[in-house]
């Protein structure tokens, strides 16, 4: 048995998608619910003074091969999004709206899949609206809600708090006050999460 741990993520990160798919299996096998912690990756990079891999050509090229390698290893359906980088600010604010309406799980699953399994253009508002309708959200009402100052402030606060805890990228996991970064570190996360149960 393991105890739940925190999972910091952003839809813009293909590695967060790979972690998410592994976490779904972990939840099912252990009958637990992992704590999904939405943050803004761009905000974290700014706070940590890090240049995003998407804007470093050699890193971006490597990332495509690396993600495919791990997707094959874990038997995860994966398609590197040709519209990368994804502008995720509104999508991540949307997670907060979905939380309020008890739809976070389906919202997160749908947008992760849309981006990294189906390869849809989430930079296109028409496409995003279509997905929102499938999730039973009214797109216009949704846009009004994510533009409210309290939602903007909440995502910023969560991102700032994550940085203060030591988060500098995603996916990051926090368990027993210990930070683990990268989807390939989940085995160490599980080992730590199994202590003192």
Describe this structure in words.
- With 197 residues, the protein is of the alpha+beta class.
- The radius of gyration is 16 Å and the shape is globular.
- Strands 2-1-3-4 form a four-stranded mixed sheet, with helices on both faces.
- α4 runs antiparallel to α5 (104-116).
- The chain has a single domain, classed as Glutaredoxin (3-Layer(aba) Sandwich), CATH 3.40.30.10.
- 55% of the residues lie in helices and 8% in strands.
- It has helices at residues 14-30, 41-48, 57-73, 89-100, 104-116, 125-134, 139-146, 149-164, 186-193; strands at 6-9, 35-38, 172-175, 178-181.
- The longest helix has 17 residues, at 14-30.
- The chain contains nine helices and four strands.
- The relative contact order is 0.20.
Short description:
The protein is α+β, with helices and mostly antiparallel strands and 197 residues long. It is 55% helix and 8% strand.
Topology:
Blueprint: E1 6-9, H1 14-30, E2 35-38, H2 41-48, H3 57-73, H4 89-100, H5 104-116, H6 125-134, H7 139-146, H8 149-164, E3 172-175, E4 178-181, H9 186-193
Parallel strand pairs: 1-2
Antiparallel strand pairs: 1-3, 3-4
Helix pairs in contact: 2-8, 4-5, 4-7, 4-8
The CATH class assignment is Alpha Beta
User: Approximately how much helix is present in the residues?
Assistant: 55-70%
Structural class: alpha+beta
The number of distinct helices, counting runs of at least 4 residues, comes to: 9
In CATH terms, the superfamily is Glutaredoxin
Mean pLDDT: 96
Strand content: 5-15%
Give the strand line-up of the largest sheet: 2-1-3-4
CATH architecture: 3-Layer(aba) Sandwich
Number of domains: 1
């Amino acid at each position: 048995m393991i105890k739940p741990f925190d999972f910091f993520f952003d839809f813009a990160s293909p590695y967060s998608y790979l972690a998410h798919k592994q976490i779904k299996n972990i939840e099912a096998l252990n009958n637990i619910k992992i704590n999904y912690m939405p943050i803004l990756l761009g905000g974290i990079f700014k706070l940590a003074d890090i240049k995003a891999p998407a804007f470093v050509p050699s890193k971006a090229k490597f990332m495509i091969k690396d993600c495919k390698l791990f997707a094959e290893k874990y038997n995860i359906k994966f398609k590197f999004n040709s519209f990368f980088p994804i502008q995720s600010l509104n999508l991540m604010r949307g997670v907060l709206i979905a939380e309020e309406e008890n739809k976070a799980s389906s919202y997160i699953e749908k947008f992760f899949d849309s981006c990294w399994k189906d390869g849809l253009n989430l930079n296109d508002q028409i496409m995003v609206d279509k997905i929102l309708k499938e999730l039973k959200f009214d797109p216009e009402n949704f846009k009004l809600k994510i533009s409210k100052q309290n939602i903007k402030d909440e995502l910023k606060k969560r991102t700032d708090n994550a940085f203060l805890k030591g988060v500098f990228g995603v996916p990051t996991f926090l368990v027993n006050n210990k930070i683990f970064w990268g989807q390939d570190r989940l085995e160490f996360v599980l080992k730590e999460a199994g202590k003192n149960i």
